[in-house]
Amino acid sequence: xxxxxxxxxxxxxxxxxxxLSCTASGLTFSYYTMRWFRQAPGKEREVVGxxxxxxxSTNYAESVKGRxxxxxxxxxxxxxxxxxxxxxxxxxVYYCAARRVxxxxxxxxxxxQGTQVTVSx
Length: 121
Known about the structure:
single chain, mainly beta, four-stranded antiparallel beta sheet, 55% strand
């Protein structure tokens, strides 16, 4: 059974920092591209950033570029989201997701349960 468990969310003041972790089990972690998403109240879920299987390539949403950093430790089956210079508009539930494209017809997607990040002004 595949599980992704996020941790590290909480309440922080604007300008502060938080680091989220997402630990996977039940899958070969290094086979998967990992992504962080977030969903604010009343808004659609949006991708925050992506990291490839070995951490050699990352991509970020424009809204977080220069402030957020994604990294991974395949030995620990964990992906991280370091969030700096947090803004109230970063308030959301943050989700990690694992994706593996097995073939043209088959893509495996797994999601964590989410962790709340609240940034006070």
